[in-house]
Write a structure and sequence with these properties.
The chain is built from 16 helices and 16 strands. By secondary structure, the chain is α/β, with parallel strands linked by helices. It folds into two domains: 175 residues, Aspartate Aminotransferase, domain 1; 260 residues, Type I PLP-dependent aspartate aminotransferase-like (Major domain) (Aspartate Aminotransferase, domain 2), CATH 3.40.640.10. The strands form three sheets. Strands 4-10-9-8-7-5-6 form a seven-stranded mixed β-sheet, with helices on both faces. Strands 11, 12, 13, 15 and 16 form a five-stranded antiparallel β-sheet that branches. A four-stranded mixed β-sheet has the order 1-2-3-14. Helix 10 links the parallel strand 7 and strand 8. It binds pyridoxal-5'-phosphate. The site of pyridoxal-5'-phosphate has 14 residues, from helix 7. Keywords: Aminotransferase, Pyridoxal phosphate, Transferase.
Length: 459
């Protein structure tokens, strides 16, 4: 029996020839192609690479599933890179937003939506990190966090990590090592150190026996580069762009100690990991570490563009950040954004989706783990909750990454078979919605297994 036959499957039109449980690109993509081509006459270049590759045009969506204009059903584990926390078209969410649209649509007034959001967040925010300022893009929230760190410390230097991603405006771009070629000059005072990416450890060591050599190195980077003005260390608790890299336990705590040594803040960029994605409300809570500032977004709005900076009251009180109009933005805390956060947080809480993310994520990791032996290209399978990574390599001994062309062929084969994933370098990144059920994950796992076991270097 093949993995396909074993998969439990969603209810679907199994009668479509070639479709497994009704999923996959089984109908010719005639309408989608015409639609995509017409759009591209006006849409500028530089769209997300996976969107350009897939050329998907979506007619309808429900939970973890999308249907393209030609009627092909696809399991969406790309999840807008972690945005899709409660699934497509969650009925309570759509009803709440539709109702909110009939009230004041513009203005950061006090509003029923804002009060509902505050009430929903009170129990959700971690410990004394209980104040939030809202924005509409991730990079905007990261920039605000940098301004906050400057306000608190009176300093202006930042340390970030190789493989990280924090956005594309000047401050966040300066934090994003390895992705700024051709975009200089960048602000001075930004330096970077290797992340705890154990599968590609630059020191060729193994955790936990390495004594966190990468943290020691980060300390040296600060000593060698800083003018004594380090404002913050900025780190993702799980690095998304480099393939959902999960550092060993204790890493964030060790970085927190380094930040203290230099009288600097620890900023945890929880844009992707926050609001339950990793099986804790916030990923830093897997450790006993208290960052000074969190940046959040993505899953927090269930698809509505809303992001935020979270900190304790005494941190937020620092000037100039705290002065009137100094930390606001045009769209920050508009009623629709607040309603989106209120509704998403209520659904996460009522349906216990943080726990579901932990359980489903562990099951998926177990079900995918042996691909490192069975699938010719799979070098590593990892994850935290429902942020999972399957790293493709051409040499399992040296961990030499699979080239881009091969990774793209694997991505398209998976799409053909019915699972849409996200890419990050040579890693397939999976972001199922946090309310995904076991039947749905097992169907996707079945497709992933069969496709990846069947694919070699020739693609
Ligand atoms: C950790 C992290 N920070 C910041 C950002 C930037 O967010 P945005 O694309 O909304 O500007 C992202 C986006 O992927 C992210 O993953």
């Amino acid at each position: 029996m093949t993995d396909h036959e074993r998969g439990s499957g969603l209810a679907g039109d199994d009668d479509v020839p070639g479709a497994w449980h009704g999923f996959g690109m089984v109908r010719p993509r005639v309408r989608s192609e015409a639609h995509w081509t017409e759009e591209q006459e006006v849409i500028g270049p530089g769209l997300q690479a996976v969107m350009l590759l897939s050329r998907l045009c979506v007619a309808d969506a429900d939970g973890p599933e999308i249907v393209d204009l030609d009627g092909n059903r696809i399991i969406d584990f790309q999840g807008a890179g972690g945005v899709n926390s409660i699934g497509h078209a969650e009925p309570r969410f759509t009803a709440a937003l539709a109702e909110e649209l009939t009230r004041a649509t513009a203005g950061a007034f006090g509003s029923p939506a804002r009060l509902d959001m505050v009430r929903a967040l009170r129990d959700f925010l971690p410990g004394d990190l209980d104040m939030i300022q809202l924005y509409s893009g991730g990079t905007e929230a990261v920039e605000a966090a940098l301004r906050l760190a400057k306000s608190v410390t009176g300093k202006h230097e930042f340390l970030s990590f190789w493989g990280g991603f924090h956005g594309k405006t000047m401050g966040s771009l300066a934090l994003t090592a390895g992705a700024r070629s051709g975009l200089g000059p960048l602000p001075p005072g930004y330096f970077s150190a290797p992340y705890a990416n154990c599968y590609h450890c630059p020191f060729k060591l193994r955790a936990p026996d390495c004594g966190f050599a990468c943290v020691e190195h980060a300390r040296d980077v600060i000593k060698e580069n800083s003018t004594g003005a380090l404002a913050a260390i900025v780190v993702e608790p799980v690095q998304g762009r480099s393939g959902n890299v999960v550092p060993p336990p204790g890493y964030l705590t060790a970085l927190g100690e380094v930040a203290r040594e230099f009288d600097a803040l620890l900023i945890a960029d929880e844009m992707m990991t926050g609001f339950g994605r990793t099986g804790a409300a916030f990923a830093h809570q897997h450790e006993k570490v208290r960052p000074d500032v969190l940046t959040v977004g993505k899953g927090m709005g269930g698809g509505y563009p809303v992001t935020g900076v979270i900190a304790a009251e005494q941190t937020m009180a620092a000037a100039p950040f705290s002065e009137p109009s100094a930390s606001s933005s045009s769209f920050g805390a508009f009623p629709m954004a607040c309603r989106a956060v209120a509704s998403t947080t209520a659904i996460l809480t009522e349906d216990k989706l943080v726990g579901n993310a932990a359980v489903r994520g562990r099951e998926m990791l177990d079900q995918l783990a042996d691909l490192t032996e069975l699938a010719p290209l799979v070098g590593d399978v990892r994850g935290a909750g429902l942020a999972l990574g399957i790293e493709l390599v051409v040499d399992k001994r040296t961990h030499e990454p699979a080239p881009k062309s091969l990774v793209q062929r694997v991505y398209l084969k998976l799409l053909e078979a019915g699972v849409l994933v996200m890419l990050g370098g040579n890693t397939l990144r999976l972001y199922p919605p946090l309310n995904v059920d076991r039947t749905q994950t097992e169907t996707a796992v079945g497709i992933l297994r069969e496709t990846l076991i069947g694919i070699g270097r020739e693609g």
